[in-house]
Amino acid sequence: MPHSFGYRARTRHMFRRDFRHKGVIPMSTYLVTYKVGDIVDIKANSAEQKGMPHKFYHGKTGVVYNVSPRGVGVICFKVVGNRYLEKRVNLRIEHVKHSKCRQEFVARVKRNAALKREAKEKGEKVQLKRIPALPRESHHITLAGNTPITVGPVRFETTI
């Protein structure tokens, strides 16, 4: 049997709605404000076929460059051969959501600014560099009062 090479070919599981999230799109999706420069994740919502992205862009992250009444324009990069091409995709807002990739960074910047402010008031220096978790401290294990236990399989018994 020949198979199709259509626009939505092989997207059976990709565009599937999540469990208990089928049906009408909630109003909160339409009330989100998008601005130029916002970082958004592209996730196609199969309940709305208009303004739907191509399957390649599903799961990609991009930057909003244009805002229109019902949709947004998103810049994302596509690997073609040995180079990155900047692609401009126009999508309806049902298919995008704000990305959480910068939340940790923004929170860290705010925390660092507060620490700098406090240190400046006190007149001392502050260490803002992130230090990776160090290896655990070394220790000795003694067998005094701690005899080893031999572990083996337990015989199967039915309880019926």
Describe it for me?
This protein has one helix at residues 103-122; strands spanning 39-42, 61-67, 71-80, 83-92, 96-98. It has a five-stranded antiparallel beta sheet with strand order 4-3-2-1-5, with no helix packed on it. Strand 3 (71-80) and strand 4 form a beta hairpin. It is built from one helix and five strands. It is flat, with a radius of gyration of 27 Å. The chain has a domain at 27-98: SH3 type barrels (Roll). It is an alpha+beta fold and 160 residues long.
Question: What would you say about this model in short?
Answer:
This protein is of the alpha+beta class and 160 residues long. 12% of the residues lie in helices and 21% in strands.
From the alpha-carbon coordinates, what is the Rg to the nearest angstrom? 27 Å
Structural class: alpha+beta
Q: Quick one: CATH superfamily of the domain at 27-98?
A: Ribosomal protein L21
Portion of residues in beta strands equals 15-25%
The amount of helix comes to 10-25%
Task: Provide the low-confidence segments as ranges.
Answer: none
- Main sheet: which strands, in order across? 4-3-2-1-5
CATH class of the domain at 27-98: Mainly Beta
Distance between the termini: 51 Å
The pLDDT mean sits at: 93
Reconstruct the topology from this structure:
Elements: E1 39-42, E2 61-67, E3 71-80, E4 83-92, E5 96-98, H1 103-122
Antiparallel strand pairs: 1-2, 1-5, 2-3, 3-4
Summary tags:
alpha+beta, 160 residues, single chain, five-stranded antiparallel β-sheet, SH3 type barrels, flat, 1 helix
